[in-house]
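URGENT: need a sanity check before tomorrow's submission.

F., can you look over the WAT1-related protein record below? I want to be sure the sequence and structure line up before it goes out.
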Amino acid sequence: MMDMGSIWQRLKPDVLMVLVQIAFAVVTILYKLAIHDGMSFRVATAYRLICASAFTIPIALFFDRKKRAKITWSVLSKTFLCGLFGGSLYLNLYLEALALTSATFMLVVSNLIPVITFIMAVCFGMDKFDLKFVEGKAKVIGTIMGMSGAMLIIFFKGTEIHIWSSKINLLHPNQNSNEQIASHHADFGEKALGVLCALASSCSFSLWYIIQAKLNKEYSSHPSSAALIATMGAIQATIIALCVERDWEQWKLRNNLRILSVIYPGIVVSGLVVIAMAWCIKKRGPVFASIFSPLQLLLVAIAAYFMLDEKLYLGSMLGAIVIVCGLYAVLWGQSKEMKKKMKIIEITRTTENEGHVVISTLVSHDIVVQINQSSAITKENVVNDQ
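Structure tokens as predicted:
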């Protein structure tokens, strides 16, 4: 029988990922309230990245104090792009869309990020799929489902779904339902712009994944990499905010809500949450961390419905279900491929211990070539069979 300590060790990654999704859900609602309070989302982005930079730099100096990888111009250029697509540009687009649409819609579109990342990875030659294998079919089907779900949300509204009215509306405490319906019809143009910004933010973050993967191969110091990216993003976001927001009153954190919307995302989300996710990914892998993302959508949808008086429509619910199913299809395909690659690595190590060298490829089928080590094969002689 397992004791409580071993049970906790086994469940710790699951508990941490649930807390991570709760933290993400809180910051989404917090940003929605802060923007409605009149806070500039460009200033909010700048403050968040400044806090993230101030939090990650001491961590990088502490953990990399003995050995730090060399920073080249190539590394600096990639951290600049990561700071742009995963920081300043992404957050500006995300908060712009959040201001123009709903919190639930933003989380639905955010679940497209793994699908968009897969498409970009294929275009850049960093990923591939083979329809001869079930995992390749799953990734293609999941991609089609994700895009179909997004189109369903955008072009099909459907009837409103009534669950239970809490009569709590933190955004419009003094506005009645008739005024809200009139405002929904009046700002159709703004909502269309919000949809474009939401899709653009997902594409921006997907591009960050691609560049981050290239950066990880070139620069192995993760704390320093995170600090560089946060610093680059903070500089970019501050320049953007200074150029756009000429009203210095916007930079004043006049109330507790604005202070909380700066400190919480900067330290908790961009600091502690990132560390927790890195630990979970190290323990269980990236696919494990990704499967919890729909939980954030569920939490935000519930909070927005009961606290922000957001409406639920049939089209949005059907689209969200299709997107989440597509997300899991893509993640399942990626998980199968990762397991297959890990199996090849294990076979390679086992055979090397027996005095052989194994060359394997997964282009069309698994090929295992065993060459006796006594033939003095050098690294230059080993060529992957394409």
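My own read: The chain has one domain: 12-336. The longest helix spans residues 314-353. If you see anything odd, call me.
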